[in-house]
Specification:
- By secondary structure, the protein is α/β, with parallel strands linked by helices.
- The chain has 3 domains: 94 residues, Alpha-Beta Plaits (2-Layer Sandwich); 295 residues, Rossmann fold; 89 residues, Immunoglobulin-like, CATH 2.60.40.
- 21% of the residues lie in helices and 21% in strands.
- The protein has 12 helices and 22 strands.
- It has a 7-stranded parallel β-sheet with strand order 6-9-5-10-11-12-13, sandwiched between helices. Strands 2-3-1-4 form a 4-stranded antiparallel β-sheet, with helices on both faces. The protein has a 4-stranded antiparallel β-sheet with strand order 19-18-21-22, with helices on one face.
- Helix 8 packs parallel to helix 9.
- The longest helix has 18 residues.
- The protein starts with 25 loop residues before the first strand and ends with a strand.
Length: 555
């Protein structure tokens, strides 16, 4: 029995599907070019929203042919053969179609602008099997009190406090960064009851559900599809003080259904790419994808570990393309850690994809979390967050606990949106790099936790602490050498006559605090060698009125 790619282990019950009801007959049509397109790179407003244009401009990203929509004349020609047009993809320059008539495929192949037509649905599966395997060894303890507490303090995270506190995200919320103005696209299998569940009432009342779109059943209702996306969304968007507050409770969201929970075919990877293109066009800042692909109902479509090289699968190429457009793509690593396939799945193998593994509430590796490295030897997952015993919506105005990297991924996606809100001048890759540098084992990553548990306050400091030029600057003090080995000099500048100096590690712990009242003071770290491994540190200097923070590197 194959483990489904929806990266969730439900603890309350096993949910079984019946026999697959959707007949095969989906094909991907690859076009040869975009010649004679009515669209022009000189007029991106014809195919991108102003918000998408602004995101490109802010990050210095130019337009190229992949931004041009598929030639509409080519789509019309394919439709004229009798095929049903499903989802075009401009990044891949093709279209997903449906037909059960072999003569239609012959007609499509005969078109002069078609290079290949390939089946992406395969043979129909006839074996009923669970949506999800329950890999938990024991049930999680559920909270006794499940009633809504609307009178609690605005920052009372309720049962979700542990999962934001583990990554030290609360300081950003307290500083006013809760996702306002940021747009997160959630690609998933459905968002059952998000339109009525009280955990999302502020999201609805504020108009921060910007829209929905179904790429599985065009025109379908994502609120009456699968529940998985609701649980994922709750870790970011829930906002019921005293019960549950997510990591980005003030962000805005697009809810996009790309995954069909009733079957498993490569066609869903093409759905994902089209959904990511849509997220790009409407100006999303962050994509959360709690989906991953390794094996399929038709075994001939199965991926191999060799495919996890960042360049092979359709979905991984699409995810990296989304990142190249300035979107920060966050994806679950997978739940295969204790199976024969224990590696990450696609698109978590992408070199620009922020791949998220799982730990429990105490920060220990969750046994099911998929491992790295990629086939070509890169560190994966990138970082980890709470994915075992995670607080999520139960779809009935309350919460439950669940397991899966499906949940660690959106916890990171939401908190990352808050960090980017605080530092809007940064690029997606700069934000991602700072989060990795803040993580608990950045200097010694492994295949289980990657770079470890991030510290969002430290990531914020890394992005804001830019005064590190030796002997220069017009602040309170010059701090040098940088990088350092055994000592750091503190030279007071200007009118500064005395100051207080703190040395702080990446976890926010103050290692040393000393008064400085001489023009030049040397801090000798020889006695602190055991507590100061190589990595990033901060030296904070204050004269009682002003504060200067300097990012330092210890070799």
């Amino acid at each position: 029995m194959n483990l489904k790619k929806l990266l969730l282990i439900v603890l309350t019950a096993l949910v079984f599907q019946g026999f697959a009801q959707v007949a095969p007959g989906k094909y991907y049509v690859q076009f040869t070019d975009k010649n004679n397109s009515p669209y022009s790179l000189d007029h991106p407003e014809d195919f991108l929203s102003q918000r998408a244009i602004n995101r490109r401009a802010n990050q210095g990203i130019s337009y190229n042919e992949t931004d041009l929509p598929v030639n509409p004349q080519y789509l019309a020609g394919v439709a004229a053969t009798g095929a049903e047009i499903l989802n075009p993809t401009k990044w891949m320059n093709g279209v997903l179609v449906h037909t059960n008539d072999p003569s239609v495929i012959d007609s499509i192949n005969a078109l002069p602008y078609v290079s290949v037509v390939r089946s992406v649905s395969g043979r129909l599966s006839t074996v009923g099997k669970p949506f999800f395997e329950n890999e938990s060894t024991e049930p999680e303890n559920m909270p006794d009190d499940m009633v809504l507490n609307r009178n609690a303090a605005s920052f009372d995270y309720g049962y979700a406090e542990g999962q934001i506190n583990l990554i030290n995200g609360i300081p950003l919320h307290e500083a006013g960064y809760r996702g306002e103005g940021m747009v997160i696209a959630v690609l998933d299998a459905g968002f059952d009851r998000v339109d009525v569940d009280l955990l999302f009432d502020s999201l609805r009342n504020d108009g921060r559900i910007l829209g929905t779109k179904d790429f599985v059943t065009p025109g379908g209702d994502v609120y009456h599809a699968f529940f998985h996306g609701r649980n994922v969304l709750s870790t970011m968007a829930a906002n019921i003080p005293g019960l549950m507050i997510g990591t980005a409770p003030k962000a805005s969201y697009w809810l996009l259904r790309s995954e069909n929970a009733d079957q498993e075919y490569v066609s869903e990877e093409y759905n994902w790419v089209s959904a990511a293109e849509f997220a790009d066009s409407v100006g999303a800042d962050v994509i959360n994808s709690s989906l991953g692909y390794t094996v399929f109902d038709d075994p001939s479509q199965n991926h191999t570990y060799a495919d996890m090289d960042g360049n092979t699968t359709v979905i991984t190429r699409g995810a990296d393309m989304a990142a190249s457009k300035g979107i920060l793509v966050v994806n679950s690593a997978g739940n295969s850690g204790n199976s024969s396939w224990h590696y990450i799945g696609a698109p978590a193998d992408g070199d620009s994809v922020f791949s998220i593994g799982a730990v429990d509430t105490s920060g220990m590796y969750a046994f099911f979390s998929s491992t790295g490295p990629t086939y070509d030897g890169r560190v994966k997952p990138n970082v980890v967050a709470t994915g075992r015993g995670t607080t999520v919506s139960n779809g009935n105005n309350g919460i439950e606990y669940g397991n899966g990297t499906s949940y660690s991924s959106p916890i990171i996606a939401g908190m990352t949106a808050c960090l980017w809100q605080a530092m809007p001048q940064m690029t997606n890759m700069e934000i991602q790099q700072a989060i990795m540098q803040s993580a608990s084992q950045y200097t010694h990553p492994d295949s289980l936790l990657g770079y470890g548990i991030p510290n969002y306050q430290s990531a914020w400091w890394l992005l804001t602490s830019i005064d590190s030029n030796e002997g220069g600057g017009s602040n309170l003090a010059a701090v040098y050498p940088n990088p350092f080995v055994n000592y750091v000099n503190i030279r007071l500048l200007g009118q500064t006559r005395k100051a207080s100096v703190k040395v702080i590690n990446m976890m926010g712990k103050v290692l040393l605090e000393i008064p400085v009242s001489t023009p030049l003071y040397r801090i000798d770290f020889s006695n602190y060698a055991d507590n100061m491994p190589a990595g990033f540190y901060f030296v904070e200097v204050t004269d009682g009125k002003h504060v200067q923070a300097v990012k330092m590197i210890k070799r």
